[in-house]
Design brief:
Length: 123
């Protein structure tokens, strides 16, 4: 069985046809121990291509420097290096997809409680 994730305009995501088992594994990882999940970006490696902003605009946004940053639930960009924000449960798969496909390999996703990496360069 295959599953196609789509962008808000209905177009399939790049590399979006994946086996359901893969999605389930990612979901299991994100939901491990029902832990809260946090995300941050290493802007030193960001290419500015905007994939993450397309996938999860509620969590990622460009600043005037053309690089992506995380933002909190109030929509405030977190510009400090290594600043992290919690990921709402309904956006976890979008954030995981962003980390998996980030061309700069610079989106870090980890469990909030113990910092165990879930996706990104340290996972
Ligand atoms: S996907 Fe990665 S490289 Fe691309 S804009 Fe987002 S953080 Fe930067």
């Amino acid at each position: 069985m295959r599953y196609i994730r789509r962008l808000a305009d209905g177009t399939p995501r790049h590399g979006s046809v994946v086996a359901v088992d893969t999605l389930n594994a990612a979901s299991d990882a994100a939901n491990a121990d029902t832990a809260e999940v946090e995300v941050w970006i290493d802007q030193e490696l960001c290419t500015g291509d905007g994939l993450c902003v397309q996938y999860a605009p509620e969590v990622f946004e460009f600043d005037v420097d053309g690089l992506a940053y995380v933002k909190d639930s109030d929509g405030d960009l977190k510009l400090a290096q290594g600043a992290r924000v919690p990921v709402p449960a309904n956006l976890r798969l979008d954030v995981l997809d962003s980390a998996k496909e980030c061309p700069g390999n610079c989106i870090h996703v980890a469990r909030a409680g113990d910092g165990v990496p879930i996706a990104g360069p340290d996972a």
